[in-house]
Design a protein that fits this description.
heterodimer, A: alpha+beta, Serine Threonine Protein Phosphatase 5, Tetratricopeptide repeat, 4 domains, six-stranded mixed β-sheet, 20 helices, elongated, B: 281 residues, alpha/beta, Rossmann fold, Hypothetical Protein Tm841, Chain: A,domain 3, 2 domains, four-stranded parallel β-sheet, four-stranded mixed β-sheet, globular
């Protein structure tokens, strides 16, 4: 069957087959990612974005403008990752380019693709040639040249497809990173799989039935976490210990002398039968052990003053936070249970599980922004692949939203240090953006595929050390790679290193790694925290 | 004749006060039912010792106008002028009592209440500058403008052992933004416009913090200080270490240390310490 025009109903089914085809090949697209870090997401991100577009399109009325509008809206909300955001711009641009045509023929489709390209270029701050932008632009140009020629719709689409394919194969020539890795642009490939599906659908291919299970990113409310781990107050002696000692011939002065080396704030009062003892000590057991040899103990009380202080502070903080709508609220994308707690303790109101493999969608971010009780909101994406997505949220809500350009977890923390709830959105954005420049980020992770990068021959499973997103060392052991990476990142004696260990590292390993780092840099200030993040055994900052 | 009066929150030692002819009115410390006069009934060391095992946490209150009137009459003769420099009125009602006393003594003694917009060490420094100006023979205008100069040019930064004390006594103000920390964060604070304000959340060990304090002083002063003042609320080791850092970093610098009295100790909490400096003039 050969169609000359695509109507709304047909459009819906073609979209579905296109998305399905992309799904079938999504791992292939993921594998094209130049960077072998375990966030080879382009295929997944694009697929999820397309899927969101499709979902809305299916619900729309059966007319072409309706379907395209709905698809664009769905893509906008469901956009994940940079490739997802650009894809959503393609949808919007295509819808706009067709100028509400009721039927899509060669002329309309050409205008649509040209519109898609134009809007996508506008959306990207620094468009790079050799990416899906180039592929779609070229497709649009080719399509435009074919308008007016007498040909069947199917042949037209195939011709445009072949041209796009040619351009895709040239992308390694346009982008050195692609050439080095020996791959074509992943985003372009993803678009082509979708396009391929559309053409096959036109040619009569039908859908296979399947069910998919996918993980939705989780939005965790800051309030679902409790517990604090590290005490702010430096108590020299932690346990407030008091009790009454009853016996015979008790010698108050002797007891004072015996106990005084074991703590401070000591009070020993009484007579030879009853003595009240109060002392701040780190070993309450020792004190009790001593006393029990002298007589009977009663009204024994031992309080952990560190914990008590911590609890009081937590309570105070909670009281303060529950009081009023905040002027400026914070939303952050953070992977890992330990990191959640840290971010929450620094004042972040809503946390989105996101990080590397699961890039949150525009909608996920939007939901978090609207959930928070604040007049204005700052978003900390903590990932270069989420910055663009976060940038879309502002258009979706009346709430003033600004995106702090944090690309890593430590950058996000640095930014939070500069956050001042008494200042407005702009002042905070400026201060937080500046703070990001103060910190250098290191990451230790594993390679998901074989690759060549920066002159390294990387095997699948190799451990890689990244400095501010760039692979600068490769090895077989996480701990060793961490040390190698640190050696290249730590300058001067005065450094302040903060290590966050991930989910796959157990505490004793982390402690022993900490010791190695301290040995290697005896003059540096080193802190270790449990981050709990997946995939990155260590994330760290050097300041 | 001009006399200088201040209150016990200036944390001036008895020696300094006497040698500079400064009269000090005590604020009140409440330990449960007991009311103690700061610097007369109770002093720093005893206070911190008692604080660690007192069941109810102490509170503070300002001197009454009547007490001010008494002190003013004991300090000055009829026709004299008293410049009464006090703890920021945003932090205490002391200045208000001083004003009421001033009204009551109109025609008898010319009392000029001055809001230092500070407390503790910085207040003490402002008061000492005023006393010096008086010694130099300055008139009222001269002393007041010296006070103003000191207020405007003083650099002051401090940290606390725990923000809960400032919070509990209601003086934390905007510094509440410094609460919050699973990371090892030290709050860095200052006083501005008469209120306690946050400067930054500091990460790093005590030695780094010392260096940071020195940086902040240098930045505020626009140069190296000749004299550095240190204050602490039962944190002698911290101050000792900070003092060493000052001497290492600024060769030849004069370091003056003071201990914060009970009134300040209640609000700042044990473990607080800070650094202040004035430019040369």
């Amino acid at each position: 069957m050969s169609l000359d025009f695509i109507d709304g109903l047909k459009l819906k089914s073609l979209l579905e087959i296109g998305v399905e085809t992309l799904f079938e090949h999504k791992e292939e697209v993921d594998d094209l990612n130049v960077f072998p870090v375990p966030d080879g997401d382009t295929g997944t991100n694009m697929y999820l974005t397309f899927k969101a577009a499709l979902k809305e399109a299916k619900k729309a009325s059966d007319d072409v403008p309706g379907v395209l509008e709905a698809a664009a809206q769905g893509a906008l909300m469901g956009a994940r990752g940079n490739s997802g955001v650009i894809t959503s711009q393609f949808f919007r641009g295509f819808a706009k380019g067709t100028e509400k045509a009721e039927k899509l023929g060669i002329s309309e489709i050409a205008k649509g693709i040209a519109g898609a390209s134009s809007l996508a270029y506008q959306a990207v701050r620094k468009p790079v040639e050799g990416t899906m932008l180039t592929v779609v632009r070229e497709a649009g140009e080719k399509a435009t040249t074919l308008v007016g020629k007498k040909m069947k719709l199917e042949d037209f689409l195939v011709a445009v497809y072949h041209h796009a394919e040619d351009i895709l194969s040239q992308t390694p020539e346009m982008l050195p990173a692609l050439k080095q890795a020996g791959v074509v642009d992943a985003g372009g490939k993803g678009i082509l799989f979708f396009f391929q599906g559309v053409i096959e659908g036109l040619q009569g291919k039908t859908l296979k039935k399947r069910t998919i299970q996918e993980k939705e990113p989780v939005i965790k409310s800051a309030s679902s976490f409790t517990e604090s781990e590290i005490s702010l107050v430096d108590f020299a002696f932690q346990y407030c210990t008091e009790f009454i000692l009853q016996g015979k011939k008790l010698m108050v002065e002797e007891i004072k002398k015996d106990l005084s080396p074991h703590g401070d704030s000591m009070l020993v009062v009484g007579n030879e039968n009853t003595v009240k003892i109060h002392i701040h000590t780190n070993n309450p057991g020792l004190i009790l052990d001593y006393a029990v040899r002298l007589g009977d103990l009663s009204e024994v009380q031992i309080h952990n003053m560190v914990e008590q202080s911590q609890q009081r502070l937590e309570k105070l903080k909670q009281n303060m936070e529950s009081e009023t709508t905040q002027e400026v609220g914070l939303v952050a994308v953070v992977p890992g249970e330990g990191l959640h707690k840290i971010y929450k303790s620094l004042g972040v109101g809503e946390i989105i599980e996101g990080g590397q493999t699961m890039n949150p969608s525009t909608e996920d971010l939007y939901k978090a922004v609207t959930k928070i009780d604040a007049k204005q909101v700052l978003i900390l994406p903590n990932n270069s692949n989420v910055i663009m997505t976060a940038g879309q949220v502002g258009e979706l809500t009346e709430i003033p939203v600004a995106v702090v350009p944090s690309k890593t977890i430590p950058q996000g923390i640095s930014a939070l240090m500069a956050f001042n709830p008494h200042e407005g959105l702009r002042e905070n954005l400026e201060a937080m953006t500046r703070a990001i420049g103060n910190v250098s980020t290191g990451e230790v992770t594993f390679a998901v595929r074989k690759s060549q990068y920066n002159g390294f021959e990387i095997e699948e499973g190799d451990i890689m050390g990244l400095k501010d997103g760039d692979i600068i060392c490769v090895g077989k052991d996480s701990s060793q790679v961490l040390l190698d990476l640190l050696k290249q990142m730590v300058e001067g004696e005065d450094s302040f290193i903060t290590l966050y260990y991930g989910h796959d590292v157990n505490e004793s390993e982390a402690q022993s790694t900490l010791a190695k780092v301290q040995d290697l840099f005896p003059d540096a200030d080193v802190e270790l925290y449990y981050g709990g993040q997946p995939l990155y055994s260590y994330i760290f900052s050097v300041e | 004749m001009i006399h200088i009066v201040t209150d016990s929150t200036a944390d001036l030692t008895k020696q300094l006060a006497e040698s500079n002819n400064i009269s000090v009115i005590p604020l009140n410390l409440h330990f449960g039912e007991e009311i103690l006069k700061d610097g007369e009934d109770i002093w720093a060391e005893e206070f911190y010792h008692r604080l660690s095992f007192e069941a109810t946490l102490p509170t503070t209150s300002q001197p009454s106008p009547g007490e001010f009137v008494d002190l003013y009459r004991r300090t000055a003769q009829k026709g004299d002028t008293i410049i009464s420099i006090h703890i920021s009125e945003k932090l205490s009602g002391t200045l208000n009592s001083s004003r009421l006393a001033a009204e009551m003594l109109q025609g008898e003694i010319n009392v000029v209440p001055v809001d230092s917009a500070y407390v503790t060490l910085p207040l003490g420094m402002v008061v000492l500058e005023a006393a010096r100006a008086v010694k130099e023979g300055q008139d009222l205008e001269g002393v007041l403008s010296r006070i103003k100069w000191a207020q405007e040019n003083l650099a002051f930064s401090f940290t606390v052992g725990s923000l809960e004390h400032l919070y509990r006594t209601g003086r934390i103000g905007k510094a509440s933004s410094l609460l919050g920390h699973l990371l090892n964060i030290r709050p860095v604070l200052s006083i501005s416009d008469g209120l306690i304000v946050p400067v930054e959340k500091f990460r790093g060990n005590s030695n780094r913090l010392d260096r940071r304090f020195l940086d902040l002083i240098r930045t505020d002063l626009g140069g190296e200080p000749a004299v550095v003042y240190l204050i602490h609320a039962n944190a002698p080791e911290e101050v000792k270490r900070l003092e060493e850092a000052c001497r290492e970093s600024i060769p030849g610098v004069e370091v003056v240390s003071a201990i914060a009295g009970p009134i300040v100790g209640v609000h700042a909490g044990p473990g607080a310490y800070g650094i202040a400096a004035l430019p040369a003039h």
